[in-house]
Structures are given as C-alpha cells and as structure tokens.
Specification:
Helix content: 25-40%
Strand content: 25-35%
Number of strands: 23
Oligomer: single chain
Largest sheet: 7 strands, mixed
Distance between the termini: 38 Å
Radius of gyration: 26 Å
Number of helices: 17
Bound molecules: glycyl-adenosine-5'-phosphate
C-alpha cells in the first residue's frame, strides 16, 4: 500500500471511531483481535445496507423469499458440507517470533512488493506458482516457494519457518447439560447451510417453483488466523446470501445473470464502476463448477467483497446422503424429479460497509486566499446515510426551537433525523458533514413569517429556500428507497 493510501486508510479508521461508526471490541480491556462493534451511527448504516439488500433481492423478486435460520445447527451438517474436513487455511509459523501466518498471504504480500518495485514478470510468475501449489494442495511446495523467494517473518525478520499445515477455521463449542453427554457444535462459518437444510420446508410451505431463491442475512464465524485491515477480515461477521435453485443444465446461464445483477447493485451504491472488477477463481471450491469474486478497489488494492458461485447440486446431494432424506423437486414442466442446482451470491456485510466508508470519505480543503478552512465529509447516497437530515434552529430562543421540533416530528417517523441547537450554524453543518447527513434544514426568523426553511446540501454545500410543506416530498425523492431501487427494477 502506498504511503498516501496508507494515510487515507488510517484516517478512515480514525474517523469511523471518532464519529461512532465502528469501535474495536472490548476496547477498555485492550480489545479482542479481529472483532469489532458498530456504534450508534454504524448500526444505522449497517441496517440501511441490510434493508437495501433485502428489498432488492427479496421484495423486488417474485421468486425469492427470505429466512432466518439458527446459528447452531446439527453438527452432521458441517460434515456433509465438507467444512469439517476441508474448511482449512494453509498456515506456517515462524520459529523465532512464534507468529503464525497464512502461507498464501505471505506470498501475496511478496507479489505486492514485486509489483510495487516494477518487477511485473516476477510477480506474475510467483502468482502462477502459488496458484498451482494451492490447486494441488501441495503444502511442501508452498513452503519451498516461501524459501525460494526469501520471504521473511515481518516480526522477527528471519526465514526460520515450520512446515505448512492445514488449520480448520470453524469455532466449536459444547451443547448439552453435562460434560459427559455434551455434543460438539459449531458456530456456522457461512449462512448458506441454513438455507440448504430448509430447502424443502420453504419449497413446500411456499409452493415455490424452480427457479426460485432463498435469501438470508446473518452472523458467521471464522477463526481467521491472519485478521487484518480493520473490518475486512473478522472472526465474527455478517453475510447476506442468496441460494438460487435452478434446473440442472441451466446453472451457468443463471450464474452469468447473477454476476451482472450483483455488479450493478454494487455500482448503484458507490457510483463508480471503475472501482469494481470481476476476478475468476483459479482454484474452485470443492462445491463449485464456476466461481467469481466481485472485487472493490480498497486503499490496500482490489479485494473480494462478494463471491458468486455455481455450487452445482453438491450441497443438497450431500445433505440427502448424510440425512437419508430426499431433497428433490418435481418439475411439472418436464415431468421429472431432480436435485436442483444452485447459484449462490454471498456478500459480506462488513466488507460492503468498508467499501461504502472508503468510497464516501473525503477530507476537503476549502481554503481561500484569505482563510484556511477544511472539512471531513462522508458522501453517502442519501438513502443509506445513517442520519437523513438535521433540523437546526438558528438560535435557541424566540420560538425557533419549537418550530424546528415541529419539523423534526413531521419527518422522524419515516427517517432518522437529528435535532441540534448547539454552537454556530457553521460548526453544526461541519458536524453533519462528518457523519454524512445529506440535508441540513435551518429554521430562522423568516420561517416564523412565511413557513419556509433553508435546506443546505452536503455535497455541493449549496443552500435553497423551500416551503416546510415541500420537505416530505423532497426527502422522499432524494432519500427514499425509490431513489436507489428504481434503477434496479
Ligand atoms: N457461502 C459462501 C461463502 O461463505 P466466502 O467467499 O467464503 O463464501 C462470502 O464468503 C463473503 O463473506 C466474502 O465475499 C466476504 O465478503 C465475506 N467474508 C468472508 N470471510 C470474512 C471475514 N473473515 N470477515 C469479513 N467478511 C468475510
């Protein structure tokens, strides 16, 4: 990461903490690694992102419904899905620092160093060697690559490495009344399996016809060994997943459709299509016959924000085998029973949050010849902004606060609105800019005479005079869900 991008990313993290978006977990106890809490504004932004996803995936599709399955599930589910045996990362320890690393990430860091030094050929060759070793699950080869490229431990600076070993990422705990008969259960590492095991329940109770989808938003847990880059890689995080059940043989067509749909969705939020790209998987997961990541250009480079996988009938077939229950669909159009194929879209809510934050944050220099000035601003799309508008009486007296509270009450049922009467109006505008509030509604003496207010726009900082009676309409047009969703229909 360049110094400029590093500084920018540090400012984003500091800003998120200062303004109540994201806090390190358990901070007064020195924190808990790779676990974060969302603050008073963070939770609003996160809820808005969930709503936007739910509305666009469930509400706008006649053939998609949602569920909310439990985090704990029968332990055999994770055997059937392949997670008990195969959900591993290749780990390597440095014997001097006693630090543990993901072998592939050590190599990726070396690739970035080659790229930064303009050694493009070396970077490409190393990437190809690593992909080949990962594809073949060749752990000794991974270690050899690390040694051949003189990759040292960032902490100790030495090459005193252990062998590369597989490390399972699932958290386990015990469920049961006494230690003797307690069962090992897992904290789910993905929400997808909760959907697969409910496939028939939903299909039958909802009389769903293939093709149809089941969507879910929920927590997932992974014992990530290398947790870094703020909320990018966490041990407890949230996923928004869709499993779309299709007739076998049509899955790649649907896969292409979902790729386009999901990319469009991301661009609708962040505006800038140049910040996104597809990255085809070289090493396909055990369940997939096609897979792609939607990557976002973070300050630390292009990285995955969403995965789209054509999962074949792997999961349903495995659950059929392990449970002994038929998980089939009778297709009346072709008069046949089959196990449907599945196309999955899976976006990490926390990573999505980070794309929004990085994309929105700006430190603007507003200095003129006479005066130094600057502001921190979050350019969120109004529909997802944590606070949609602030109502600001110019002074604390002469009936202005009462008038301002009337406006607040007329808008607060539909939108999250703040009321602020402290400090100068300029300082109040800056506070709202810093949390990304798109509109500041100022009540002044003229308001008492003609029922108009000044509306100040966050991005342009322009002001316009509007009748109070027109505020609801303006808010609906600019900050209502339609302002985002209309483009997706
Ligand atoms: N059901 C498929 C699945 O879980 P994945 O690529 O492992 O696929 C999907 O995860 C998405 O979940 C990723 O694109 C990422 O946004 C998010 N994600 C995965 N691990 C994460 C972690 N440790 N912290 C934050 N988000 C994570």
């Amino acid at each position: 990461m360049s110094k400029q991008n590093d500084d920018f990313f540090k400012s984003v993290i500091a800003h998120a903490k200062e303004y109540g978006l994201v806090f390190p977990s358990s901070e007064i106890y020195d924190g808990l690694s790779a676990v974060y809490d969302y603050g008073q504004l963070g939770v609003e932004l996160k809820n808005n992102l969930k709503q936007y996803w739910w509305k666009s995936m469930v509400q706008l599709h006649e053939n998609i419904v949602g569920i909310d399955s439990a985090i704990f599930m029968h332990p055999t589910i994770w055997k059937a899905s392949g997670h008990v045996d195969g959900f591993n990362d290749p780990m390597i320890d440095n014997k001097d620092s006693k630090k543990r690393y993901r072998a592939d990430q050590l190599i990726e860091d070396q690739i970035s160093r080659y790229e930064a030094d303009g050694k493009t050929e070396e970077a490409q060759q190393l990437q190809a060697d690593m992909d080949e070793a990962l594809n073949a699950d060749d752990l000794p080869r991974l270690k050899a690559i690390i040694e051949e490229h003189n990759i040292v431990c960032p902490q100790s600076g030495t090459k005193n490495w252990t062998d590369v070993r597989q490390f399972n990422l699932m958290f386990s705990t015990k469920m049961g009344a006494s230690a003797e008969d307690a069962d090992t259960v897992y904290l789910r590492p993905e929400t997808a399996q909760g959907i697969f095991v409910n496939f028939l329940n939903v299909q039958k109770s909802g009389r769903m016809k293939v093709p149809f989808g089941i969507a879910q938003i929920g927590k997932a847990f992974r014992n990530e060994v290398i947790a870094r880059q703020f909320i990018m890689r966490m041990r407890e995080f949230e996923q928004m997943e869709l499993q779309f059940f299709v007739r076998p043989g049509t899955e790649l067509e649907w896969y292409e459709k979902w790729k386009e749909t999901r990319l469009k969705w991301h661009i609708s939020l962040n505006g800038d299509s140049k910040k996104y790209r597809f990255h085809d998987h070289v090493k396909l997961a055990h369940y997939a016959n096609a897979a792609v990541d939607i990557e976002y250009d973070f300050p630390f480079g292009f990285k995955e924000v969403e995965g789209i996988h054509s999962r074949t009938d792997f999961d349903l077939a495995q659950h059929q085998k392990f449970s002994g229950k038929k998980l089939q669909y009778f297709d009346p159009e072709i008069n046949q029973n089959y196990v449907p194929y599945v196309v999955e879209t899976s976006v990490g809510l926390d990573r999505l949050f980070l794309t929004i934050l990085c994309n929105a944050f700006e430190e603007q220099d507003l200095s003129t010849e006479d005066k130094k000035d600057s502001r921190s601003v979050l350019h969120f799309h109004p529909a997802i902004a944590p606070v949609k508008a602030a109502v600001l009486p110019l002074t604390k007296k002469d009936g202005l606060p009462e008038k301002a509270r009337e406006i607040l009450n007329s808008l607060r049922i539909d939108y999250n609105i703040q009321y602020d009467e402290k400090d100068s109006i300029g300082k109040r505008y800056r506070r709202q800019d810093a949390i990304g509030t798109p509109f500041c509604i100022t009540v002044d003496y003229q308001t008492l005479e003609d029922d108009t207010v000044t509306v100040r726009h966050r991005d342009s900082m322009e002001q316009e005079r509007l009748p109070i009676a027109g505020l609801e309409r303006m808010m609906a047009e600019k900050a209502g869900w339609k302002s985002l969703l209309n483009d997706l229909i």
